Structures are given as C-alpha cells and as structure tokens.
Amino acid sequence: MLHYFVLASNLLCSVLTVKSFGHGSISCRDEKNEPVDWFIIYKLPKYVMEYSGNGVDYMYLDGSMKTWDLSPFKVNYSDGAAAYTLGQLYQGKGYESNSSAYLLYNDAPPDLHYDMDHGHTKGVMMFDETQGFWLSHTIPHFPPFPEKGYGYPSTGMFYGQVLFCVTYAYQQFHPISEQLMYTLPHVYNCSLPGPLGADMTILAQLCSGASPHLPKDRTVKKLVSAKGETFLSFVKSHLFVDDIYTAWVAQLLDTDLLVESWQRQGHELFSNCSLRRHVLNVSGVRLPGPVHFHSHYDHSKWCVSVEPEGGWVCLGDLNRERGQVWRGGGLICTQNTLIYSVFRRAVYSFYKC
C-alpha cells in the first residue's frame, strides 16, 4: 500500500507559481461578482430538519472564508456565484464570442432525454487563450442552452446539490480535456472557435460526439488552479467496472473515506470494509444554521477522510450505486484544510460495516 501513498504525494508535490487575474478575465465569480480562484455551493434540499427550506437556498464557500455562509441569494436568481460565473456565457451573448470557448455536458441535459450511454457527469467549461473556469456539478437539466439565458430547473429543487468551480490557466485545459475523455460526457452544446478548436483537439472530438481511444480504463492527474491550488482529478471510463470510491480512490489516497451520495433504494452499495481502506456511507448531513437532512434527500456526491491525518476531500460525479459501477465519471480531490474541515463537520451520521 505504500506505493499508493507515494504516488498521491508525488502528484501533489511541485513548485507552484502564484498568478493573479484581472476582473475582465474569464473565471469563477464570487457572491460579489469578483474573480475567485475557487468556490463551492451546497444547494440545500427542499425538505430539511431544523430549517424551513424552499429548494433554492444554498451555502457558499471560497478560500477567503472560515466556514459555510448561507447565501442571501437563491440559486435560481440572476445574482450569486453560480449566476455570475455562468453569466460570462449567457450575458451579452458571450456564447457567440470568437475569442472564447465553452462546453456544456450533462447526462440529463435540459430539454433532452436522460442518457445512459455516456458518463454520469455534469459540468461547464469556458475559457479563452488566457484562462477560464471548470464548473462541475450534480444538477440534472442544468444549465440551460445558452440562447435561453441563465436559469435553474424546477426539478433541481427537491434534492441537495453541489457545484464546484475552479479557475484554471489556459494550459490546464489540456489535461482537463484528457480527463473528460475518459468519462465520455454527453456534450449537448459547445463552441471551439478558431485557434482554440485547432489546439483543443480532444474537446473538438467530444463536441462532435466522437469517442476517443482510451489507453487505459482510468487515470489520475494533478491540476493546478490559476492561483496555485493543487487538485487531483480521478476519472474512470465504463471499462473500469467497480466502485470508484472503494476499489480505487480510498486505496490510492491511503485513507478511510466517508461518502455522501444519492442511493436509490434497492440499488445502493453498502459500506465496505473488505479492503485495507474502508468506505462508509454517510446517512446524515449537518450544515451551519443548523441545517440537518438525511442523505436520501441529497443528490450531491462527495467524500472525506475519516481521520484528519488523511485530510482528503473529493467532490464529483458518481454515486455509490450498483448501476454506476458501469458508468464513466470522476472526482476532484484536495487536501485544502478549509474544504476538509467544513465537509468533515458536515458528516452528522454514517453507516458502519
């Protein structure tokens, strides 16, 4: 098991150059519409204990904070971090720009049928020749086609959802593209104009609906944000037929994991202690407020190290569910102490083996 730990450590260790970005650059945007290196939104379920939810409230977190903040905005407003970030695509017909590229993907796309042939992945990328953002999320039917403007689906109000946005320099979209290739996302709208399309050949293939050749069934890569934050991206294709959490991520990171994911009754994968590193299902989530809800009301997918010595937290695409061992998808993992602390505290209860 030592080689797993060494591999993860080597992927994270590097000399990072901290960069700055201006207000006009394509980036994740915070609650004040200012550029931010990363943010996480935890959209609350409609029915929660100890809190009167309406299905559009959300908690917000970025690197300038110490814990979650209940946003004064709603996720279906034209204000707030999600709307401001995606506004770079929707407002002023940004989707028609010849100097920027974008990619919208969702296995449950808006206005189209649910797709079982592609990966269980959902997200948005937008970038120019300098930088851009990658917004991964768990919301079916979101976001709308660009010409329809920003909106939030009514079907996304019942369950809890998570949105994770990271700003990256342009060069990072090459490894991000390679990671997406493994998951085979259902791309329902995209634009790669001019030299961006010629340079981003893998994204061009995904936009065309092609299935690029995969040299293996899974891969992990280091990604570095615009301001030097390091992440590990785990992705698996449909050829890796196993639970990503139990069979791979927990073992490679060498840490026991608590996993929050939506599980349909009769299709769930139970807590697993059969391997050296264990994976335990979260049963209850508690956020500040207090906000308390059962995992059955939560469509988000995340995991966190049981013990702080590991300090890992991952956000991603896949549920611990039987049918999804056959689907492509991934996780974005970090040892950021702030992100770890808020998600570890969010575990209210869990199922032991």
TrEMBL record:
Signal peptide positions on this chain: 1-17
One Pfam family named in its UniProt record: DNase_II
GO terms classed as biological process: apoptotic DNA fragmentation
Any one GO molecular-function label of the UniProt entry: deoxyribonuclease II activity
Catalytic activity: Endonucleolytic cleavage to nucleoside 3'-phosphates and 3'-phosphooligonucleotide end-products
Record bears the keyword Disulfide bond: no
UniProt keyword Ion transport present: no
Alphabetical keyword list: Hydrolase, Signal
Superkingdom, natural source: Eukaryota
EC number: 3.1.22.1
Similarity comment: family membership: Belongs to the DNase II family.
Name of the protein: deoxyribonuclease II
Organism: Clupea harengus
Gene that produces this protein: LOC122130209
